[in-house]
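User: Teach me something about this protein's shape.
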Amino acid sequence: MFRSLPLPMAATVLLALMATSAGAGGIPIAANCTVPSHIVLVGSSGGVPDAAAGQFTVVVRDIANNPRSGYSVVIDLSACADLEICADQMDPNAQVSCTAKTVRKYTNALGEVTFTVMGRSNGGGNASTLANGGRIFSNGALIGTPSVSSFDLDGSGGVGAGDLSVWFGDFGTGQPFERSDFDGSGTIGAADLSAWLGVFGAGTSVQSCRASCP
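Assistant: First, the predicted structure itself:
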């Protein structure tokens, strides 16, 4: 290829190809990334987010399946009209944008980043989001579309008795509203009620957001 080009030009073309290749290799590839299919928004207790109920990890990899360090990972709930994220995630590494309805963190040397997203439903009979309402981006590339549920369904007082009324309302509609689908199965049923009762009994999500994004 380069024999027919003057040496300086051939060198320029080669460098350009190398740069293009390196750039392409660094793009997150959804098929190679590890992302959750389901996320649960949680509350807190004593200023500690409920990691036991809501923690998940994203791993970002490129086209060569190499983990990417220092990459932005954004949890985007802008399409989930019936859910809110907490303005304070109680995590010094989490960057919240209330305007965009996102939580951002950055991957470590292994390409991993761990989230416990605090939030709630905005309550009542306003369920609207079905499956795969959430979006996960890395460096601007879409790498996942998880369903998103919330144990705090009435939007106040953390996980408590008031949430059951909302859950039974969602269950009674026969619609798979993802805010009440705690096991991410695509339906609302007994397993979801069991999951909610487990979190309620643990007492680790008894506090709602100090302030939520509108």
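Now, about its shape. Residues 2 and 9 are 9 Å apart (CA to CA). Residues 28-202 form one domain. If you'd like, I can walk through any region in more detail.
User: That's plenty for now, thanks!
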